[in-house]
Automatic annotation (TrEMBL):
Entry keywords, A to Z: Antenna complex, Phycobilisome
Ribonucleoprotein is among the record's keywords: no
Protein known as: HEAT repeats family protein
InterPro entries: ARM-like, ARM-type_fold, PBS_lyase_HEAT
Domain of life of the source: Bacteria
Classification of source organism: Bacteria, Bacillati, Cyanobacteriota, Cyanophyceae, Oscillatoriophycideae
Any one cellular-component term (Gene Ontology): phycobilisome
GO molecular function, one term: oxidoreductase activity
Pfam families xrefs: HEAT_2 (PF13646)
Length: 226
């Protein structure tokens, strides 16, 4: 097994002209504490290589320090690359910092790129804040199926029982991933309507939908016996 790289070696490699060296150095920060990693991650936030920038933004979400939140909010707000804005939205979800609610909602409503709006919807679910109801309900009507998927999943994550009727219409969606997300979400939304829908979805032709529905039914049944 290779010995982990020293901080000095990682710092030197992050300044290499070879993008592969910089990528490997960034990956090596997985073994480094957040307080030591973040200053090094910041070195490549403006890297000319887009995949490296993307990886650095993601790293800020899993190496949380007080510096990470404002950096990610600014990237979400103003970075010219939609992929980086989407990465920033996703990283804010990993932080699970409730302060990210407003920036994420703003990105969902105002950003023109669907990928950013998708990432914002997913992260609103990660925050588990019921205030996301209005934005997620709007996301259900998106023309982008992946945004519908994200909204259904997020409404389940925030345990929004008021959304049950709205998401049940997706039980017959032609997209099996939509039906799977619905099956998973209903497991967080105990009600007679949820149970009836899950019994229907448990007979779905797609094995992943069937499996998710059966699992959610067990969860709801176990919760009732507690």
């Amino acid at each position: 097994m290779n010995e982990p790289l020293s901080l000095e070696t990682i710092a030197t490699q992050l300044e290499s002209e070879n993008s592969r060296d910089r990528m490997l150095a960034l990956a090596s920060l997985r073994q480094v504490s957040p307080i030591e990693a973040v200053p090094l991650i910041k070195k490549v936030l403006n890297d000319p290589n887009l995949p490296i920038r993307s990886m650095a933004v993601f790293a800020l979400g899993i190496k949380p320090t007080e510096e990470c939140y404002p950096i990610l909010v600014e990237l979400l707000k103003s970075d010219p690359d939609y992929g980086i804005r989407a990465d920033a939205a996703g990283a804010l979800g990993y932080l699970e910092d409730i302060r990210a609610f407003e920036p994420l909602v703003r990105a969902f409503y105002e950003d023109t790129d669907w990928l950013v709006r998708f990432s914002a919807a997913v992260s609103l679910g990660n925050l588990k804040d019921i205030r996301a109801h209005d934005a997620l309900m709007q996301a259900l009507d998106s023309k982008e199926i992946v945004i519908q998927q994200a909204a259904i999943a997020a409404l389940g994550e925030i345990k929004d029982k008021d959304a049950i009727d709205a998401i049940l219409r997706f039980a017959q969606s032609e997209d099996w991933l939509v039906r799977q997300r619905l099956s998973e979400a209903l497991g967080n939304l105990p009600s007679s309507k949820s149970i009836a829908a899950l019994k229907y979805l448990a007979k779905d032709n797609h094995p992943q939908v069937k499996k998710a529905a059966e699992f959610s039914l067990r969860r709801l049944s176990e919760a009732e016996t507690l």
